[in-house]
Amino acid sequence: MIHSMTGFDLSEFDNLSWELRSVNHRYLELNFKLPEDCRHLEAALKTRAKAHLTRGKIDCTLRRTMATQSDLYVDQPLVQSLLSAIKGIEDASDRAVSISGLDLMKWPGVLTNHRSRPDDEVVLNHFDTALERFCQTRAREGDATRLALLEKLSQLEATLAELKQATPDIIQRAQARLINRFEALDLTADSERIHQEIVLLTSKADVGEEIERIDAHMIEVQRCLAEGGPVGRRLDFLMQELNREANTLSSKAIAVESTFGAVDMKVAIEQMREQIQNLE
Question: Is residue 2 included in any domain, yes or no?
């Protein structure tokens, strides 16, 4: 199966939610945004993610759902410590310090909820579930891209088949034009010289090797799409090779048909290359 590098999933559990989103990237880059009391799980979470992902810039965010009033808890010992510290500042500075209860609640750790510290295994298991759904999303997008690539590949094959069929006639017409030019200019060239010119023209216009290489590259593209897995880099390389051969076809074109055929091939190859940039 082929996976896209772009994807999104929001998985909500009892009092936790995992948000996973990804964009294209040359390598695998994992970024975790976790509550302070869950940061010790980052290494384990990355290990789990690397087992399923190979490319893309992945942002993984763990959030807690809003606590109800009954869940709220004020850390009284911490509040007393803060009040003692404020009293010490007042005594040392001989000035009163104005602070409200709302200011105290904003202090880290003063206002918490009993459910805010989930069990480590629960967090990891929820992440596995979210990761599985996230991978399914990327797989669906990857399959849609695969079908689009196969459609473009069919267009490329059709253009190449037309060029194969037209090439012998194109060369024959070019040879005839060369002979007519000699005759129109009334050049006294011997038959051997005319033969050499025809051979040279045929050699320059012969695109048999390029067509064979394009055929081979397209077969490899089809194999990669059928095999699946992380094939994005290989497909990108094959697009470069296909484009190289299409450029050679264009440079050897001696007729309008072959010029237009090469242009159509280059357009299809570029469209395929843009879609391949999204593949893992």
Answer: no
Q: Do residues 54 and 29 make contact, with C-beta atoms less than 8 angstroms apart?
A: no
Return all residues near 270 (Cβ < 8 A) that are at least 6 apart: 243
Average pLDDT over the chain, rounded to an integer = 84
My answer on whether 135 and 150 are in the same domain is no
DSSP helix, strand, coil percent of the chain (3-state; round to 5): 65, 15, 20
Kindly report, residue by residue over 151-181, the tens digit of the pLDDT. 999 999 998 888 887 777 766 666 666 666 6
Q: At what angle do helices 120-184 and 191-205 cross, to 10 degrees?
A: 160
Taking Cα atoms as reference points, which of 75, 60, 79 lies closest to residue 123?
A: 60
Secondary structure (3-state) at 195 = helix
Which run of H or E residues covers position 186? Answer: none
Tokens 């979210």 sit on residue: 130
Residue 47 is assigned to a structural domain of this protein: yes
- What does pTM read for this prediction? 0.71
